[in-house]
Amino acid sequence: MIETVQDSAGLESLAAEWNALAAGAHVCCSHAWCTAAWECVQGREKGCRLRVLRWTREGTDEAAIFPFFVDGSGTLRLLGDSFSDAGDALCRGATCRYWMFKEASDAVRDMPDVRRIHLMKLSGRSPLLDFWSAFWPTCVVYKAPPRTFVDVPRSDDAISALPGLKSKNRARLKALHREVSGMPFRVLSRACGDEFPSGLVERLRATMVASGRRRGDFLADDMTAFARRLFDEGVCEIPVLGDDDGSQALAFQMVGSDDGAASSLSWINLDSDPKLLTGLYLRYIEEKSRVAGLRFDFGTGAYAYKLNTFRPEARANYTFRASKSIFGRLADRLRLLARHRWVGSGRNRE
């Protein structure tokens, strides 16, 4: 059975079931993340409508949630897609998996306000990508910038423990670590009773806009509200390097925390000196790895910088596009032919 949730009250009522299905998933797939994305940003955009699908089968514990919304152009998208590093349907059970994805696909076809589908940040192992590539035979799937991550074992010397580094890179990181080791460093979190650092956000935002490194609308009110919401709900913490009073350079980054993982939120890294962001990563990884091993997820974007600095592993991301109209399908194919990144139905994906 498919149920369509179309308002914030219905979205909130799914919290317990959603969190159970999202156990082990990326922090960007959590109920708190998706709800904050809708209520602080996407739900305020003109013409956007919530279309979260909940699938259940009577007599079984199999279930699925499809965190969708429809934007003002009639495009079905994933909640938080444009400022998340991962997205997917959440499901439990294998016996009825075909039917949960088939019935969700049929429900989308029956939505009169949906003209096309554009799902971003799907991994190569995404069941949504696999099933819908079959249910929408005229779809196009193409590679997007990969997610990069590094697995760090528990260690008192995180830089020496970083895997895959060439000796030259390791020496460069150790030199940078020595340079920033005397700077004040702390990790702000709601669990420790800290408040969201609004003053720091505004100070660094203004610095980066004035320097030309960010546009004037960077971290507008809605995105700042989104960041505050994630922090207040304990979804993210904020490592800060430097002095609050401005006597030293300053950098900070919002990081989503999961069990055994930390996800760098690349859309909100702020620094007065670009190399400080690397120093911030080093100090944060150092502090966390002293307690336990962790996977540090750098997210998407800036692949060349991360490859040259940390030699991370990479995992491909994919974008799925489909259209209900012939003209829409033709436009999708022409767009992808121009980009030379079409990978077809995905049978050759990782």
Structure description:
The protein is α+β, with helices and mostly antiparallel strands. It folds into two domains: 169 residues, Aminopeptidase (3-Layer(aba) Sandwich); 139 residues, 3-Layer(aba) Sandwich (Aminopeptidase). It has an eleven-stranded mixed beta sheet with strand order 2-5-6-8-15-9-14-13-12-11-10, sandwiched between helices. It has a four-stranded antiparallel beta sheet with strand order 1-3-4-7. Helix 3 packs antiparallel against helix 9, helix 4 crosses helix 5 and helix 7 crosses helix 10. The model has no long low-confidence stretch (mean pLDDT 86).
Taking strands numbered 1, 2, ... along the chain, how are they ordered across the largest sheet?
A: 2-5-6-8-15-9-14-13-12-11-10
Radius of gyration: 21 Å
> Per CATH, which architecture of the largest domain?
3-Layer(aba) Sandwich
- For the secondary structure, the number of strands is 15
The description of the largest β-sheet is: 11 strands, mixed
Order of helices and strands: EHHHEEEEEEHEHEHHEHHEEEHEHEH
In DSSP terms (H or I, runs of 4 or more residues), the helix count works out at 12
Shape: globular
CATH class of the largest domain: Alpha Beta
Q: Could you please say which CATH topology of the largest domain applies here?
A: Aminopeptidase
Residue share in helices? 25-40%
> What percent strand?
25-35%
Q: Average pLDDT across residues?
A: 86
Class by SSE composition: alpha+beta
